[in-house]
UniProtKB/TrEMBL annotation:
Residues 19-120 form the Cytochrome oxidase subunit II transmembrane region profile domain. It catalyses: 4 Fe(II)-[cytochrome c] + O2 + 8 H(+)(in) = 4 Fe(III)-[cytochrome c] + 2 H2O + 4 H(+)(out). Pfam families: COX2, COX2_TM, Cytochrom_C. Its cofactor is Cu cation. It is found in: Cell membrane; Membrane. It is a multi-pass membrane protein. This is Cytochrome c oxidase subunit 2. Residues 124-236 form the Cytochrome oxidase subunit II copper A binding domain. Its main location: membrane. The chain crosses the membrane at residues 49-68, 89-110. Residues 305-330 are annotated as: Disordered. Binds a copper A center.
Length: 346
Protein backbone atom coordinates (compact mmCIF):
# COMPACT_ATOMS: atom_id res chain seq x y z
CA UNK A 1 0.00 0.00 0.00
CA UNK A 2 2.85 2.38 0.81
CA UNK A 3 4.30 1.79 -2.63
CA UNK A 4 1.06 2.91 -4.32
CA UNK A 5 0.75 5.91 -1.99
CA UNK A 6 4.22 7.07 -3.05
CA UNK A 7 3.30 6.60 -6.70
CA UNK A 8 0.21 8.77 -6.41
CA UNK A 9 2.34 11.64 -5.13
CA UNK A 10 4.03 11.90 -8.52
CA UNK A 11 0.81 12.15 -10.52
CA UNK A 12 0.36 15.94 -9.96
CA UNK A 13 3.98 16.47 -11.04
CA UNK A 14 3.45 14.47 -14.24
CA UNK A 15 0.23 16.41 -14.92
CA UNK A 16 2.05 19.71 -14.41
CA UNK A 17 4.80 18.66 -16.84
CA UNK A 18 2.21 17.77 -19.49
CA UNK A 19 0.44 21.09 -18.92
CA UNK A 20 3.64 23.14 -19.21
CA UNK A 21 4.65 21.29 -22.38
CA UNK A 22 1.83 23.15 -24.14
CA UNK A 23 3.25 26.58 -23.21
CA UNK A 24 5.42 28.68 -25.50
CA UNK A 25 5.38 30.60 -28.74
CA UNK A 26 3.89 29.23 -31.97
CA UNK A 27 7.00 30.46 -33.77
CA UNK A 28 9.44 28.73 -31.42
CA UNK A 29 8.57 25.11 -32.13
CA UNK A 30 10.09 22.64 -34.57
CA UNK A 31 6.76 20.79 -34.44
CA UNK A 32 4.97 23.70 -36.15
CA UNK A 33 6.99 24.26 -39.34
CA UNK A 34 6.47 27.48 -41.29
CA UNK A 35 8.83 26.77 -44.16
CA UNK A 36 9.85 23.92 -46.51
CA UNK A 37 13.14 23.14 -44.73
CA UNK A 38 11.42 22.82 -41.35
CA UNK A 39 8.71 20.62 -42.91
CA UNK A 40 11.30 18.26 -44.39
CA UNK A 41 13.05 18.00 -41.04
CA UNK A 42 9.77 17.37 -39.23
CA UNK A 43 8.95 14.58 -41.71
CA UNK A 44 12.23 12.83 -40.82
CA UNK A 45 11.48 13.18 -37.11
CA UNK A 46 7.99 11.76 -37.57
CA UNK A 47 9.29 8.91 -39.74
CA UNK A 48 11.96 7.84 -37.22
CA UNK A 49 9.52 8.21 -34.31
CA UNK A 50 6.89 6.18 -36.16
CA UNK A 51 9.35 3.32 -36.78
CA UNK A 52 10.45 3.35 -33.14
CA UNK A 53 6.84 3.26 -31.92
CA UNK A 54 6.01 0.43 -34.34
CA UNK A 55 8.96 -1.68 -33.16
CA UNK A 56 8.17 -0.98 -29.50
CA UNK A 57 4.51 -1.93 -29.91
CA UNK A 58 5.37 -5.20 -31.70
CA UNK A 59 8.01 -6.19 -29.14
CA UNK A 60 5.72 -5.48 -26.19
CA UNK A 61 2.80 -7.27 -27.89
CA UNK A 62 4.94 -10.41 -28.36
CA UNK A 63 6.23 -10.11 -24.81
CA UNK A 64 2.74 -9.81 -23.31
CA UNK A 65 1.43 -12.67 -25.50
CA UNK A 66 4.22 -15.00 -24.38
CA UNK A 67 3.78 -13.88 -20.76
CA UNK A 68 0.06 -14.70 -20.81
CA UNK A 69 0.09 -17.71 -23.15
CA UNK A 70 2.87 -19.63 -21.43
CA UNK A 71 2.46 -18.54 -17.83
CA UNK A 72 2.46 -21.24 -15.19
CA UNK A 73 -1.12 -22.01 -14.21
CA UNK A 74 -2.40 -23.30 -10.92
CA UNK A 75 -2.05 -27.08 -10.79
CA UNK A 76 0.69 -27.24 -13.44
CA UNK A 77 3.53 -29.59 -12.58
CA UNK A 78 7.08 -28.35 -12.30
CA UNK A 79 8.23 -29.57 -15.66
CA UNK A 80 10.68 -28.16 -18.16
CA UNK A 81 8.88 -27.15 -21.38
CA UNK A 82 9.94 -28.62 -24.69
CA UNK A 83 13.09 -26.89 -25.90
CA UNK A 84 12.83 -25.59 -29.47
CA UNK A 85 15.88 -24.27 -31.34
CA UNK A 86 16.77 -23.11 -34.82
CA UNK A 87 13.59 -21.86 -36.51
CA UNK A 88 14.65 -20.74 -39.97
CA UNK A 89 11.39 -18.82 -40.46
CA UNK A 90 11.92 -16.75 -37.29
CA UNK A 91 15.57 -16.09 -38.11
CA UNK A 92 14.64 -14.83 -41.58
CA UNK A 93 11.88 -12.62 -40.14
CA UNK A 94 14.02 -10.93 -37.48
CA UNK A 95 16.81 -10.40 -40.01
CA UNK A 96 14.79 -9.15 -42.98
CA UNK A 97 12.32 -6.94 -41.09
CA UNK A 98 15.02 -4.73 -39.45
CA UNK A 99 16.75 -4.38 -42.84
CA UNK A 100 13.47 -3.21 -44.41
CA UNK A 101 12.86 -0.75 -41.57
CA UNK A 102 16.43 0.52 -41.86
CA UNK A 103 16.00 1.13 -45.59
CA UNK A 104 12.69 2.92 -45.01
CA UNK A 105 14.51 5.25 -42.61
CA UNK A 106 17.85 5.51 -44.41
CA UNK A 107 16.72 6.34 -47.95
CA UNK A 108 14.73 9.51 -47.14
CA UNK A 109 17.26 10.52 -44.45
CA UNK A 110 20.16 10.45 -46.90
CA UNK A 111 18.05 12.13 -49.59
CA UNK A 112 16.92 15.00 -47.36
CA UNK A 113 20.39 15.36 -45.80
CA UNK A 114 21.92 15.90 -49.25
CA UNK A 115 19.11 18.28 -50.19
CA UNK A 116 19.37 20.35 -46.99
CA UNK A 117 23.17 20.51 -47.29
CA UNK A 118 22.95 22.34 -50.63
CA UNK A 119 24.92 25.58 -50.76
CA UNK A 120 22.80 28.40 -52.17
CA UNK A 121 25.39 31.16 -51.68
CA UNK A 122 25.85 31.48 -55.46
CA UNK A 123 22.12 31.26 -56.20
CA UNK A 124 21.13 34.55 -57.85
CA UNK A 125 17.52 34.09 -56.75
CA UNK A 126 18.50 33.71 -53.08
CA UNK A 127 19.14 36.47 -50.55
CA UNK A 128 22.67 36.15 -49.19
CA UNK A 129 23.14 36.86 -45.46
CA UNK A 130 26.34 36.62 -43.41
CA UNK A 131 25.61 35.80 -39.77
CA UNK A 132 28.18 36.50 -37.05
CA UNK A 133 27.47 35.42 -33.48
CA UNK A 134 28.83 37.48 -30.59
CA UNK A 135 28.50 37.26 -26.84
CA UNK A 136 25.52 37.85 -26.65
CA UNK A 137 24.06 39.30 -29.84
CA UNK A 138 23.70 38.57 -33.57
CA UNK A 139 25.09 40.48 -36.53
CA UNK A 140 23.48 40.19 -39.97
CA UNK A 141 25.18 41.42 -43.16
CA UNK A 142 23.55 41.57 -46.60
CA UNK A 143 26.65 41.87 -48.86
CA UNK A 144 24.75 42.19 -52.15
CA UNK A 145 22.46 44.84 -50.69
CA UNK A 146 25.18 46.83 -48.91
CA UNK A 147 23.51 46.87 -45.50
CA UNK A 148 24.21 45.46 -42.06
CA UNK A 149 22.02 45.17 -38.99
CA UNK A 150 21.72 43.33 -35.69
CA UNK A 151 19.18 41.34 -33.66
CA UNK A 152 16.37 41.62 -36.27
CA UNK A 153 16.94 39.45 -39.35
CA UNK A 154 14.60 40.79 -42.04
CA UNK A 155 13.85 38.51 -45.01
CA UNK A 156 11.42 38.35 -47.95
CA UNK A 157 8.89 35.55 -47.68
CA UNK A 158 8.94 32.75 -50.24
CA UNK A 159 12.60 33.28 -51.19
CA UNK A 160 15.58 31.14 -50.23
CA UNK A 161 17.84 32.83 -47.68
CA UNK A 162 21.42 31.56 -48.07
CA UNK A 163 23.50 31.90 -44.90
CA UNK A 164 27.21 32.00 -44.18
CA UNK A 165 27.51 31.53 -40.43
CA UNK A 166 30.49 32.12 -38.15
CA UNK A 167 31.38 33.30 -34.64
CA UNK A 168 33.45 36.23 -33.45
CA UNK A 169 34.36 34.67 -30.09
CA UNK A 170 33.12 31.31 -28.75
CA UNK A 171 30.94 28.48 -30.04
CA UNK A 172 27.30 29.48 -30.58
CA UNK A 173 24.44 27.94 -32.59
CA UNK A 174 22.02 29.69 -34.94
CA UNK A 175 18.49 28.28 -34.55
CA UNK A 176 15.06 29.35 -35.84
CA UNK A 177 12.89 26.33 -34.88
CA UNK A 178 9.92 27.18 -37.12
CA UNK A 179 12.12 27.58 -40.21
CA UNK A 180 15.09 25.21 -39.84
CA UNK A 181 17.23 23.17 -37.49
CA UNK A 182 20.23 24.65 -35.72
CA UNK A 183 23.63 25.29 -37.26
CA UNK A 184 26.77 25.71 -35.15
CA UNK A 185 28.74 28.94 -35.46
CA UNK A 186 32.43 28.15 -34.97
CA UNK A 187 35.14 30.79 -34.53
CA UNK A 188 37.54 30.68 -37.47
CA UNK A 189 35.14 28.57 -39.57
CA UNK A 190 32.18 29.30 -41.84
CA UNK A 191 29.16 27.00 -42.06
CA UNK A 192 26.37 27.33 -44.60
CA UNK A 193 22.65 26.67 -44.51
CA UNK A 194 19.45 27.99 -46.04
CA UNK A 195 15.75 28.31 -45.29
CA UNK A 196 12.69 30.22 -46.43
CA UNK A 197 9.48 31.38 -44.80
CA UNK A 198 6.01 30.55 -46.10
CA UNK A 199 4.37 33.78 -45.06
CA UNK A 200 4.93 37.25 -43.61
CA UNK A 201 5.33 36.83 -39.86
CA UNK A 202 7.77 37.22 -36.99
CA UNK A 203 9.70 34.11 -35.93
CA UNK A 204 11.73 33.67 -32.77
CA UNK A 205 15.38 32.67 -33.00
CA UNK A 206 17.79 31.59 -30.29
CA UNK A 207 21.34 30.53 -29.61
CA UNK A 208 21.22 26.76 -29.09
CA UNK A 209 24.73 26.24 -27.71
CA UNK A 210 25.81 27.15 -24.16
CA UNK A 211 28.05 30.18 -24.70
CA UNK A 212 28.29 32.06 -21.41
CA UNK A 213 26.40 33.72 -18.59
CA UNK A 214 23.71 35.23 -20.85
CA UNK A 215 23.29 32.33 -23.25
CA UNK A 216 19.56 32.11 -22.42
CA UNK A 217 19.17 35.80 -23.36
CA UNK A 218 20.87 35.54 -26.76
CA UNK A 219 17.65 35.85 -28.73
CA UNK A 220 16.86 37.39 -32.10
CA UNK A 221 13.89 37.75 -34.41
CA UNK A 222 13.37 36.75 -38.02
CA UNK A 223 10.93 39.20 -39.59
CA UNK A 224 9.49 37.87 -42.82
CA UNK A 225 7.97 40.51 -45.13
CA UNK A 226 6.41 40.56 -48.56
CA UNK A 227 8.95 41.24 -51.28
CA UNK A 228 7.62 44.78 -51.74
CA UNK A 229 7.88 45.52 -48.02
CA UNK A 230 11.35 43.98 -47.89
CA UNK A 231 12.49 46.28 -50.71
CA UNK A 232 11.06 49.26 -48.81
CA UNK A 233 12.92 48.17 -45.69
CA UNK A 234 16.21 47.96 -47.62
CA UNK A 235 15.65 51.45 -49.06
CA UNK A 236 14.92 52.85 -45.60
CA UNK A 237 18.03 51.21 -44.17
CA UNK A 238 20.13 52.94 -46.85
CA UNK A 239 18.47 56.32 -46.37
CA UNK A 240 20.10 58.67 -43.82
CA UNK A 241 18.17 59.15 -40.59
CA UNK A 242 16.54 62.52 -40.00
CA UNK A 243 17.95 63.91 -36.75
CA UNK A 244 15.82 66.64 -35.15
CA UNK A 245 17.36 69.63 -33.39
CA UNK A 246 16.56 68.32 -29.90
CA UNK A 247 18.51 65.12 -30.67
CA UNK A 248 21.71 66.88 -31.78
CA UNK A 249 23.15 66.97 -28.26
CA UNK A 250 22.59 63.24 -27.96
CA UNK A 251 24.26 62.69 -31.34
CA UNK A 252 27.40 64.43 -30.07
CA UNK A 253 27.41 62.45 -26.80
CA UNK A 254 26.98 59.28 -28.85
CA UNK A 255 29.91 60.15 -31.11
CA UNK A 256 32.13 60.91 -28.12
CA UNK A 257 31.30 57.73 -26.18
CA UNK A 258 29.67 55.09 -28.38
CA UNK A 259 30.85 55.45 -31.97
CA UNK A 260 34.07 53.54 -31.29
CA UNK A 261 31.97 50.34 -30.97
CA UNK A 262 28.65 51.06 -32.67
CA UNK A 263 28.25 52.00 -36.33
CA UNK A 264 25.15 53.89 -37.51
CA UNK A 265 25.69 53.57 -41.27
CA UNK A 266 23.92 51.13 -43.62
CA UNK A 267 26.90 48.80 -44.06
CA UNK A 268 28.90 49.67 -40.93
CA UNK A 269 30.45 47.00 -38.70
CA UNK A 270 32.03 47.31 -35.27
CA UNK A 271 32.68 45.64 -31.94
CA UNK A 272 29.03 46.22 -31.03
CA UNK A 273 25.77 46.00 -33.00
CA UNK A 274 25.20 48.37 -35.91
CA UNK A 275 22.51 50.77 -34.64
CA UNK A 276 21.30 51.87 -38.06
CA UNK A 277 17.49 51.65 -37.88
CA UNK A 278 17.70 50.94 -34.15
CA UNK A 279 14.41 52.67 -33.26
CA UNK A 280 12.50 50.31 -35.57
CA UNK A 281 13.67 47.15 -33.80
CA UNK A 282 11.12 45.29 -31.74
CA UNK A 283 13.37 44.69 -28.72
CA UNK A 284 16.13 46.57 -26.93
CA UNK A 285 19.33 44.53 -26.53
CA UNK A 286 17.36 41.61 -27.93
CA UNK A 287 15.50 41.00 -24.65
CA UNK A 288 13.93 44.22 -23.32
CA UNK A 289 10.45 44.88 -24.81
CA UNK A 290 9.59 48.38 -25.99
CA UNK A 291 5.92 47.86 -25.09
CA UNK A 292 4.86 46.47 -21.70
CA UNK A 293 1.99 44.06 -21.08
CA UNK A 294 -0.43 47.00 -20.64
CA UNK A 295 0.44 48.42 -24.08
CA UNK A 296 2.51 51.30 -22.68
CA UNK A 297 5.67 52.41 -24.49
CA UNK A 298 8.55 51.87 -22.07
CA UNK A 299 11.38 52.29 -24.60
CA UNK A 300 13.00 55.24 -22.82
CA UNK A 301 13.02 53.52 -19.41
CA UNK A 302 14.37 50.26 -20.85
CA UNK A 303 17.05 52.09 -22.85
CA UNK A 304 18.10 53.99 -19.71
CA UNK A 305 18.33 50.69 -17.84
CA UNK A 306 20.45 49.13 -20.57
CA UNK A 307 22.83 52.07 -21.06
CA UNK A 308 23.29 52.66 -17.33
CA UNK A 309 24.04 49.07 -16.36
CA UNK A 310 24.17 46.51 -19.20
CA UNK A 311 25.38 43.77 -16.85
CA UNK A 312 22.08 43.85 -14.96
CA UNK A 313 20.32 42.93 -18.22
CA UNK A 314 22.84 40.62 -19.90
CA UNK A 315 25.55 39.44 -17.48
CA UNK A 316 28.89 38.91 -19.17
CA UNK A 317 28.29 41.15 -22.20
CA UNK A 318 31.10 43.44 -23.36
CA UNK A 319 29.34 46.81 -23.21
CA UNK A 320 30.64 49.15 -20.45
CA UNK A 321 28.24 50.74 -17.96
CA UNK A 322 27.53 54.44 -18.48
CA UNK A 323 25.61 54.98 -15.25
CA UNK A 324 26.93 57.18 -12.39
CA UNK A 325 28.90 54.28 -10.90
CA UNK A 326 29.88 52.74 -14.23
CA UNK A 327 33.25 52.47 -15.92
CA UNK A 328 32.35 55.34 -18.27
CA UNK A 329 29.97 57.49 -16.20
CA UNK A 330 27.60 59.92 -17.89
CA UNK A 331 25.18 62.34 -16.31
CA UNK A 332 21.49 61.45 -16.39
CA UNK A 333 20.83 64.25 -18.89
CA UNK A 334 23.55 62.95 -21.19
CA UNK A 335 22.02 59.46 -21.16
CA UNK A 336 18.58 60.97 -21.88
CA UNK A 337 20.08 62.93 -24.79
CA UNK A 338 21.58 59.70 -26.21
CA UNK A 339 18.17 58.04 -25.88
CA UNK A 340 16.58 60.87 -27.92
CA UNK A 341 19.22 60.35 -30.60
CA UNK A 342 18.73 56.55 -30.67
CA UNK A 343 14.97 57.01 -30.98
CA UNK A 344 15.61 59.08 -34.10
CA UNK A 345 17.42 56.22 -35.84
CA UNK A 346 14.41 54.88 -37.73
Amino acid sequence: MNRWQNLWRYIPLVGLMLLLSGCGSDTLSALRPRGPVARDQLFLMELSLGIMVLVTVIVFAIYIYVLVRFRKKKGDKDIIPKQVEGSHVLEIIWTVVPIILLLILAVPTVSYTVKLAENHIGNKDAVHVKVTAHQFWWQFEYPELGISTAQDLVIPKGKKIAFEITSADVLHAFWVPSLAGKQDTNPGMTNTMYFEADDAAVFMGKCAELCGASHALMDFKVISKTEADFTKWVDKMKAPATISADARNGEQVFKDNCLACHAVSPEGLGMGPNLNGFASREMIAGVLPRIDKDGKDVSDAKLHEWISNPQSVKPGNKMPAFGPTGSKPLQDQQINDVIKYLNALK
